[in-house]
What we know:
Elements: H1 3-21, H2 27-34, H3 38-51, E1 70-78, H4 83-96, E2 100-108, E3 111-119, H5 122-131, E4 139-148, H6 160-167
Antiparallel strand pairs: 1-3, 1-4, 2-3
Helix pairs in contact: 1-3, 1-6, 2-3
Amino acid sequence: MGKGSKSKKSKLMSLLFEYLKDSNRSDRQIAKVLEVSQPTVSKMKNKLLEAGLVRNFSAIPDLAKMGYEIMAFSFVKFNMDALREVENKTKEWTQDNPEIIFSSRAEGMGMDAVTVSVHKNYAEYKNFLTKNRRFGRFVSEAQYLLVDLGGDVAKHLSFKYLAEKQQK
């Protein structure tokens, strides 16, 4: 990798951190911070997307103000005899349930996967569990952790903290 490539990568990462701090700023505003032109920021933004460093530009909402009372963390241990079928069905299942905001294989606590979902209230959460009982034969154990989104939050979800850490 040549010297120019390293500098370009460094500029791309600087742009990424600027977006993590506040993606609502205009390309012109970010260009001033990075000391480059606005068209350069626009091109670099496209490179971030093409390289997969940014999947999409999205707001991080206040879920409680949107009417969600519960964030559920579901930890699952799979029946490993049906692992291939579980992996295929999981992708379909996560796409069919928009309340699921994250789902992945995981390791720890004797579990194989974690899912994070949000729900308007406890009744909606119970319906979600009932609707998804079809996975019962694939699951050997499940544990749930429910977070009251209207309760005391020590630190709200934001990626700006990563950008701030990087700048130290």
